[in-house]
Design brief:
The complex is a heterodimer of chains A (345) and B (175).
Chain A: H1 2-28, H2 30-51, H3 56-68, H4 73-81, E1 86-89, E2 93-96, E3 101-102, E4 105-106, H5 111-135, H6 145-166, H7 174-190, H8 203-235, H9 243-286, H10 289-330, H11 335-343
Antiparallel strand pairs in A: 1-2, 3-4
Helix pairs in contact in A: 2-3, 4-9, 5-7, 6-7, 6-10, 7-10, 8-9, 8-10, 9-10, 10-11
Chain B: H1 2-13, H2 18-153, H3 156-174
Classes of the chains: A mainly alpha (345), B mainly alpha (175).
């Protein structure tokens, strides 16, 4: 195994040794600059498509760009990250998504909404297949293939996330936790394929999911303790003279949890994409193939692999923390220590 | 580039979008409900059933082990009992045979003694009878011999004298 790695590394070095002088030469030629300028014009055409949409900030960027006559990398990156109402398949054109306004509210279908629907469709397809397999499966049969792969994840969420954090009565919350895990996971992963967009990199999406967790947590707390117990929880068991401090803190604490969930998921997913795109754009900004081969592509691949890991990790973390919050809300004793532990996450 | 990035960050990365929130909520709830029906239900039931199945298998295995151990113990006990029984039977048999042997020997000895005594008696009887016969024979022989002797030595006159004297004696003695 180790020898194979060395051979691969050697062959890679040889390829680089051949390519680098070639690229130096190519870079010196006028051909290269024309190639790059054509690339830039392509990018600018993308930006035009982006600005044609709606985002006011993009319009500002467009205005700023106009006098220079050249696209700014930041605009392109933001165009990729942000939501808009065009679904672009770049060399083949783009699809303009319908704009819907109901009762003064703009509920138009945007790129991220389409991604959410794609994710939902994928989830439904995958899990109708898996669920169908389980329907006619006796305990004597072992699952195979897709069902086995999904079972590993489901079992992980069931035992290591739900059961160990919520404890008694965890079965009630399993459908929510499983759905949220796979929903976020598929959103994250679809953001990593070409033409995809990361819906979970949009703060509105993560906010909505966090609000669901918030409601689930609060309802679980009310069900576990009743109104009286819930109010007692807010006082954190302190002396009545401290209530004037403790109650606001506890109430704020209820809201910081979903807020942390929102920002964590959104920031993680956005940051990875910004890094990948920035690395790619380094080569455009410096107008160098060497940088592209030596820096941009390898580092972008590395970050891409890291993003794959982060996709799983963040889906897990969101689910884990949701389970933890539900567990804290329904726990009867010692919730203060556990809450302090959770705050460090 | 940096400044435009900052502007964009401040401008729209965190900007609220009610439409997206609405669609996310709707999509998520629908997906949750459908998945709960088509996937989580069957999968979780299957997992629980399998868990229970495994648990019951383990329980059954333990039970079977306990049972087999009990049976083994019982068998050992039975074996030990059987061993003891056989020992006892052998010992009893030995004792009995010993006794029987002694009895038989004793009886045989007694029989032999009896036979010997009876034989001795018979021999004694035979001897006596033989002696009687012999005595008679001897008497006859003696009588015959005497007869012969007497026949040869008999003299009528002397005889007559003797008988006469005897008669004389008898008649005197009666008086």
């Amino acid at each position: 195994m180790k020898r194979v790695n060395i051979i691969q590394a050697n062959s890679l070095l040889k390829v680089i040794a051949i390519l680098v002088p070639l690229l130096f030469n190519v870079n010196g030629l006028a051909f290269a600059s024309s190639e790059q300028s054509s690339g830039v014009t392509k990018n600018s055409s993308v930006a035009v498509a982006a600005t044609a949409v709606s985002a006011p900030a993009a319009e500002v960027a467009h205005g700023a760009e106009a006098p220079e006559g050249e696209e700014k990398a930041g605009d392109v990156i933001m165009h990729h990250i942000l939501d808009n109402s065009t679904f672009a398949f770049e060399p083949f054109g783009s699809v303009n998504l319908p704009k819907i306004v109901v009762g003064g509210y703009d509920i138009s279908v945007t790129k991220h909404v389409v991604m959410l629907w794609v994710v939902s469709a994928l989830l439904l397809i995958v899990f109708s297949v898996v669920g169908g397999k389980y329907k006619n499966m006796t305990p004597r049969h072992a699952p195979k293939g897709l069902a086995n792969a999904m079972e590993a994840l489901v079992e992980f969420i069931r035992l290591d996330v739900a059961k160990s954090n919520i404890g008694h009565g965890y079965e009630k919350h399993l459908p929510y936790l499983l759905t949220v895990f796979f929903f976020i996971l598929f959103c994250n992963l679809l953001g990593l394929i070409p033409y995809g967009a990361t819906a979970t990199g949009n703060v509105n999406v993560t906010l909505t999911l966090s609000v669901f967790t918030f409601f689930v947590t609060q309802i679980a707390a009310f069900k576990a303790h009743g109104v009286k117990g819930y109010l007692q929880h807010l006082t954190a068991g302190t002396h009545w003279s401290l209530w004037i401090i403790m109650v606001p803190i506890e109430i704020i604490g209820q809201f910081t949890k979903p807020f942390a969930l929102t920002v964590r998921l959104f920031a993680n997913m956005t940051a990875g994409h910004i890094i990948i795109l920035s690395l790619i754009f380094i080569s455009f900004i410096l107008k160098s193939y060497i940088v592209a081969v030596a820096v941009s592509v390898p580092f972008a691949i590395f970050i891409y692999l890291l993003e794959l890991f982060v996709a799983f990790l963040q889906a897990f973390v969101f689910t884990m923390l949701s389970a933890l919050f539900i567990g804290l809300a329904t726990a009867h004793e010692g919730h203060d220590e556990a809450a302090a532990g959770a705050a460090h996450h | 580039m940096l400044t435009s990035g900052i502007i964009l960050l401040a401008g729209s990365l965190l900007s609220p979008n009610p439409g997206l929130i609405f669609w996310t909520a709707v999509t998520f709830v629908i997906v949750l409900l459908i998945l709960k029906k088509i996937a989580w239900g069957p999968i979780l039931t299957a997992l629980e059933e399998r868990e229970k199945g495994i648990q019951s298998s383990i329980d059954r295995a333990h039970q079977a082990k306990d049972e087999s151990e009990a049976i083994l113990r019982k068998n050992r006990e039975l074996l030990a009992k059987a061993d003891a029984e056989s020992d006892r039977i052998i010992r009893e048999g030995k004792d009995y045979s010993e006794k029987l042997r002694a009895d038989i020997a004793e009886k045989a000895q007694a029989e032999a003694k009896k036979m010997i005594t009876s034989a001795k008696e018979e021999i004694e009887q035979e001897k006596r009878r033989a002696l009687d016969v012999l005595r008679n024979e001897v008497a006859d022989l003696a009588v015959k011999g005497a007869e012969k002797i007497i026949k040869s030595a008999l003299d009528a006159d002397i005889q007559k004298k003797i008988v006469d004297s005897m008669i004389q004696d008898l008649s005197t003695k009666r008086n």
